[in-house]
Here is the input.
Amino acid sequence: MATPPSPLRVRLLPSAVSGDGTLQYATSYLIDDSIAVDAGSVGLYGGPEAQRSIRHVLLTHSHSDHIASLPTLLENTLTRDGPPLEVWAGAETLACLHRDVFNDRVYPRLEVLTRPVGPAMVLHELASEREVRLGGLAVLPVAVDHTVPTLSYVVSNGRASVLIAGDTGPTERLWQVAQARQELAAVFLEASFPDEMHDLARRSMHLTPRTFGLERAKLARPAAFIAVHLKPRYRDQIVAQLRAQGIPGLEIGEAGREYRW
Here is the structure.
């Protein structure tokens, strides 16, 4: 009899430097200790020893709260002869890394970081709805609607799938893809601004509690819907508005918690 896969483990990484860590200033997730989704805070998490197991980084898009600590993660995982850090993203995000981060002004160019055994970091281009396999996990990128080209990720271990939606405004194709995933257990979905700031949310292509609820209604199957990316200044207001709607499967994301499916 085949051994069933281990649980799929996802940790929403903390980014607050004081208090209880509930406030999220930057975005990173850690999947099965080896794959980071976004690099807003992962380079500041747990120190070099804890980060050593991270081999892959999936970037949703190029905004600073999603890529800020990537150079720090590279420094913390870099060894003289070990494998490179592998970064996966859409073409526009990779171009931004070359142009705006690894450019000898913000941080050394990647060519400078090449070791005798090869590059310190390898960049891989992803295309929407073209699946890749990282270790024992299948990763399906799906484009969403944001102010810059942005990918969400459906990650599956063969028994359960989770959807990390990244930054997005109201979107459509994502839910069509999610509807077809019988094993979908959870969705991490943003709720950036309170309903009173709906105009700013619309223009910046983010969600409010009301539009979060409307997006949830586009998926006609049960799943945990974990609200993330709550702007710290408005967090209590956003949480209250989300809970007032009676959204099926709603959870408020807990920084530092390891979710298992």
